[in-house]
Amino acid sequence: MENRIYPQSPRVGVGALVIHEGKVLLIKRGAPPNEGLWAVPGGSLELGESLRECAERETFEETGVTVRAGKPVYTFDIIERDPAGKIRFHFVIVDLTATYVDGVPCGGDDALEAKWVGKEEIRNLSTGENTLKLLEYVRFFD
């Protein structure tokens, strides 16, 4: 499997936007990129895996929550260079909607924490820029 850091080509990442009872499921990232920031659960697409399968698997691995993934809703890229200008990370991220099925959030895999977060609480968290853009795009704050 190709390295996440200093890849030879862009990698595909998949996120799951899970909104349940007015709150969004977020994880505190335990690995770069965006280590320590709050984001929707997600991770790297594996060979032979569909976007929906990846969203469901990563959400369960990182939070213990079972979801049923839906359609893509937001896409962006992350390109991070080191001080010498070499590409350290290059991800194309596809966020899918997902419906809560079962489970209580608990950080797992490379997520330090996982929890349901309301609109007001998000403002007090160190949240990734793209997470806020996603939530604005789907009108979570309205």
Question: How would you characterize the overall build of this protein?
Answer:
The protein has 142 residues and is of the alpha+beta class. It has one domain (11-137): Nucleoside Triphosphate Pyrophosphohydrolase, CATH 3.90.79.10. Helix content is 18%, strand content 43%. It has three helices and seven strands, in the order ββββαβββαα. The protein has helices at residues 51-63, 119-122, 129-137, and strands at 11-20, 23-29, 38-39, 42-44, 66-81, 87-102, 111-117. Strands 1, 2, 3, 4, 5, 6 and 7 form a seven-stranded mixed beta sheet that branches. Strand 1 and strand 2 form a beta hairpin. The protein starts with 10 loop residues before the first strand and ends in a 5-residue tail after the last helix. The model has no long low-confidence stretch (mean pLDDT 95).
Topology of this structure?
Blueprint lengths: L10 E10 L2 E7 L8 E2 L2 E3 L6 H13 L2 E16 L5 E16 L8 E7 L1 H4 L6 H9 L5
Parallel strand pairs: 1-6
Antiparallel strand pairs: 1-2, 1-4, 2-3, 2-7, 5-6
Taken as a percent bin, the fraction of beta residues is 35-45%
CATH architecture annotation:
Alpha-Beta Complex
Write out the CATH superfamily name.
Nucleoside Triphosphate Pyrophosphohydrolase
Output the number of helix runs: 3
Task: Tell me about the largest β-sheet.
Answer: 7 strands, mixed
Shape: globular
For the terminal residues, how far apart are their CA atoms?
A: 42 Å
* SS class: alpha+beta
CATH structural fold name: Nucleoside Triphosphate Pyrophosphohydrolase
In percent, how helical is the residue content? 10-25%
What is the CATH class name? Answer: Alpha Beta
How many beta strands in the DSSP annotation? 7
Q: Could you state the oligomeric state of the chains shown? A: single chain
